[in-house]
Amino acid sequence: MELRGVCCVLLTCLFYTSSADKDFFTSIGQMTDLLYTEKDLVTSLKDYIRAEEDKLEQVKKWAEKLDVLSATATQDPEGFLGHPVNAFKLMKRLNTEWGELELLVLKDMSDGFISNLTIQRQYFPNDDDQTGAAKALMRLQDTYRLDTHTISSGELPDSAHQRANGNLKYFEYQLAKQNKVEAEEGQKEKEKREREKREASDKKGRPTDYLPERRKYEQLCRGEGIKMTPRRQSLMFCRYSDNNHHPLYVLGPVKQEDEWDRPRIIRYHDILSNSEIEKVKELAKPRLRRATVHDPQTGKLTTINQRIEDITGLNVKTAEELQVANYGVGGQYEPHFDFGRKDEPDAFKELGTGNRIATWLIYMSDVPSGGATVFTDVGAAVWPKKGSAVFWYNLFASGEGDYSTRHAACPVLVGNKWVSNKWMHERGQEFRRRCTLNESE
């Protein structure tokens, strides 16, 4: 991945599930705009209906009046026309009033509505968006093993659903059930299935490791396949941290939680306030598209950037600017590495700041179902919690890439997922995270 532009405050807004120009279905933010567009069109449509009803009411009054008049006149035509006023009114009606009625009937009341619809249509989703949304539903069905009735009825799992949200009790229950014999048998069965799928993949000309990783990815998204043993789990803690007696956190320490041990993944709670989250989203919303955007309002994110530096101990001056992403229907991100690998020597060459040493991922919304960040190589799953941030090192202290940090974003099943990333680079960290001669340290 490359940084397309550098400025004081830079918000990169990416969407991961379609290559369409608008990509409406990938962004709740943009789909929200569509809701208001549709609301405006409904208002315009109601105005048109009222105009048509008013016109029809006038025509009905004409019809009722003329029906009574013609019924009376035709009972005694000669007597009726013998009255000079009646004769004049007949001439007037046929010569003038029926012409006015004709103009009323022919009057097109839809001009305003059609004009508004024509203007708004240029912002409508296209066929690619509709197809993308359909594929997203299929992806959700496959990943979370939902039947067709569940999808069609809209009875999707809520936040209490253990498979969709992978709550802690469910994890603990599954971990407690695992014993040595089951683990060995499961490993043998797993190797057998992987071997069979590799053979099938070879026949189809697909990468041999795609299907096993895809299966692990989907299992983790469902809250299954967690590999941490109870013994390792017992060594994971929550704590208050003052970051080595940092002046800002001695009296108000940060809430730190161990999410995983190898690689070490740490969650920091209550990192961003609601007002700060809204500020970031406000800056990002007008620019939610596949592009790097420049924000002229400097200083908006200074406090957040400084907080990241204070907590991680890493220099953020050489870090990439904040990247904001909004995941919509089925929004996901395939397994990937954040760091540049040896076969990508020019991954961040234009920045001149070295490789991505660490990742800081902020969750800016709660997600009722789905949307976990999963590490497919080690079996870790981290679930979104608004205002919290997770942190891990992509590189060992030696500078070698840590391939166990391969991760992905699970599809959002229900809800709206906002996240922001901060990638710290090697330059400027020489005395903050000293290197070692051991490649695996």
From TrEMBL:
Reported cofactor(s)? L-ascorbate
Tell me which GO cellular component terms the UniProt record holds. endoplasmic reticulum lumen
The record's section on Pfam families has: 2OG-FeII_Oxy_3, P4Ha_N
Where does the UniProt annotation place the signal sequence? Answer: 1-20
Classification from the root reads:
Eukaryota, Metazoa, Chordata, Craniata, Vertebrata
The protein's superkingdom reads: Eukaryota
Q: What is its main location?
A: endoplasmic reticulum
Q: Where is the Fe2OG dioxygenase domain?
A: 318-426
Q: What does this protein do?
A: Catalyzes the post-translational formation of 4-hydroxyproline in -Xaa-Pro-Gly- sequences in collagens and other proteins.
Electron transport found in the keyword field: no
**EC primary class:** oxidoreductase
The record's InterPro entries line, in alphabetical order, gives:
Oxoglu/Fe-dep_dioxygenase_dom, P4H_N, P4HA-like, Pro_4_hyd_alph, Pro_4_hyd_alph_FE2OG_OXY, TPR-like_helical_dom_sf
> Which keywords has UniProt assigned to this entry?
Dioxygenase, Endoplasmic reticulum, Glycoprotein, Iron, Metal-binding, Oxidoreductase, Signal, TPR repeat, Vitamin C
Q: What is its EC number?
A: 1.14.11.2
| Record-level Gene Ontology MF annotations | iron ion binding; L-ascorbic acid binding; procollagen-proline 4-dioxygenase activity
Which stretches of sequence are listed as region Disordered? 181-210
Gene3D superfamilies registered for this protein in UniProt: 6.10.140.1460, q2cbj1_9rhob like domain, Tetratricopeptide repeat domain
Where is the protein situated, by its record's location annotation? Answer: Endoplasmic reticulum lumen
What's the protein name? procollagen-proline 4-dioxygenase
| Family from the record | Belongs to the P4HA family.
